[in-house]
C-alpha cells in the first residue's frame, strides 16, 4: 500500500468516524443523565432522516428549512419518549429501562417500515458527488461536510454545558440523588438530554441519508455509535469525537487491506473486535470516568 493511498483511506475514514460520533454523542448525552445506554439511538437516526424527508417532500419545505424543522420535531419526540415511556420506570432496575429502549428501537423501526416501506429514498442536501482534490488525495465531499458539521455540533454542546442549564445536566450526571435533594428537576434534565440526543441523531441521519439513502439500514449505525461511545468513554463527549476519528481511520485502512483478501465485510469485523476488546481491556473507555466504590 503506497503512502498516498494510505493517507487517502485514513483521512476519509477519520471524517466518516466524526459522522459516527454524531450517533455516539446522543448515546453519551442520555447515558450521562440516566446511566443507561440508549439502544434506540440507531432508530432515532433513521426516524430523524425520515422526518426531514417528510418536511421536504410532503410539506414541500426547502431543505435548509426542513432540516431544522426535522430537528425540532425529533426534539419533541425525545421529550415525549422520556415522559410517556421512561418516566414511569423511575426507580426500577436499570435492566428494565434498557429493555424499554430496545422495545422503542423495535417499535420505531416497525412504524417507519409500515409507513414508508423498505425502499431507499434519496435525500439531497446540495453536496456534490464529485471528489474534492487535496493534492494527490481524493476526499469525499459528503465526509468533509459531515466532519465539519460534527465538529460544529460538538462545539455547540461544549458551549451549552457551560450554561446554567448545562450545569444542571452535569450535576444530574454526577449524582442524580444529590440533585434531587437540592431541588433540581431530574426528570426535566433527563427529558432535555433525550431531546438533545434526538436532535443529534437527526443530524447524523441527514448526513448518512444523503450518502446512502434513507431506509431501515440507517438504524444499523447504532453498532458503530455504541463502539465509538464505549471506546471514548460513555460519559465523555470529547472522547466520542476522538474515538470516532480513530475508529473511522482504522476501519477504512483495515477495509482497504483486508477486503481484497476476504471479499468484503471487514469493516463490521473491525468494529466488532474493537467493541469486544475495549469492554474486555478498558470497560470505562479511553477517556471515561472510572468510579471506584468503597465496599
Jot down its keywords.
295 residues, mainly alpha, ABC transporter involved in vitamin B12 uptake, BtuC, two-stranded antiparallel sheet, 11 helices, globular
Quick gist of this model?
The protein is mostly helical.
Q: What is the topology?
A:
Blueprint: H1 3-34, H2 41-57, H3 63-86, H4 94-116, E1 132-134, E2 137-139, H5 141-160, H6 164-174, H7 176-181, H8 186-212, H9 221-232, H10 237-262, H11 266-281
Antiparallel strand pairs: 1-2
Strand content: under 5%
CATH fold category name = ABC transporter involved in vitamin B12 uptake, BtuC
Unreliable stretches (pLDDT < 50, length at least 5) are none
Q: Give the overall pLDDT as a whole number.
A: 89
Total number of distinct structural domains: 1
Structural category:
mainly alpha
* Assigned CATH class: Mainly Alpha
Distance between the termini: 53 Å
Largest sheet: 2 strands, antiparallel
Rg, alpha carbons: 19 Å
The 3D shape can be described as: globular
Q: Specify the number of helices.
A: 11
DSSP strand tally: 2
Describe the strand arrangement of the main beta sheet, using strand numbers.
1-2
Amino acid at each position: 500500500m503506497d503512502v498516498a493511498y494510505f493517507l487517502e483511506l485514513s483521512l476519509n475514514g477519520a471524517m466518516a468516524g466524526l459522522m459516527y460520533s454524531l450517533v455516539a454523542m446522543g448515546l453519551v448525552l442520555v447515558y450521562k443523565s440516566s446511566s443507561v445506554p440508549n439502544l434506540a439511538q440507531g432508530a432515532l437516526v433513521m426516524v430523524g432522516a425520515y422526518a426531514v424527508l417528510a418536511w421536504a417532500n410532503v410539506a414541500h419545505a426547502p431543505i435548509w428549512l426542513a432540516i431544522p424543522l426535522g430537528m425540532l420535531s425529533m426534539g419533541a419526540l425525545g421529550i415525549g419518549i422520556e415522559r410517556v415511556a421512561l418516566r414511569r420506570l423511575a426507580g426500577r432496575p436499570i435492566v428494565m429501562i434498557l429493555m424499554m429502549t430496545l422495545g422503542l428501537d423495535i417499535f420505531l423501526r416497525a412504524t417507519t417500515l409500515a409507513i414508508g416501506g423498505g425502499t431507499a429514498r434519496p435525500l439531497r442536501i446540495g453536496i456534490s458527488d464529485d471528489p474534492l482534490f487535496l493534492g494527490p488525495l481524493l476526499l469525499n465531499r459528503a465526509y468533509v461536510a459531515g466532519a465539519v458539521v460534527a465538529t460544529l455540533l460538538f462545539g455547540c454542546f461544549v458551549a451549552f454545558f457551560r450554561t446554567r442549564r448545562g450545569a444542571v445536566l452535569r450535576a444530574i450526571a454526577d449524582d442524580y440523588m444529590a440533585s434531587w435533594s437540592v431541588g433540581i428537576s431530574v426528570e426535566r434534565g433527563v427529558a432535555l438530554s433525550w431531546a438533545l440526543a434526538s436532535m443529534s441523531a437527526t443530524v447524523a441521519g441527514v448526513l448518512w441519508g444523503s450518502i446512502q439513502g434513507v431506509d431501515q439500514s440507517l438504524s444499523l449505525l447504532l453498532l458503530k455509535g455504541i463502539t465509538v461511545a464505549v471506546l471514548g468513554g460513555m460519559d465523555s463527549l470529547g472522547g466520542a469525537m476522538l474515538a470516532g476519528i480513530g475508529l473511522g481511520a482504522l476501519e477504512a485502512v483495515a477495509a482497504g487491506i483486508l477486503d481484497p483478501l476476504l471479499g468484503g465485510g471487514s469493516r463490521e469485523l473491525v468494529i466488532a473486535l474493537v467493541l469486544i476488546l475495549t469492554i474486555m481491556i478498558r470497560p470505562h473507555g479511553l477517556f471515561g470516568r472510572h468510579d471506584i466504590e468503597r465496599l
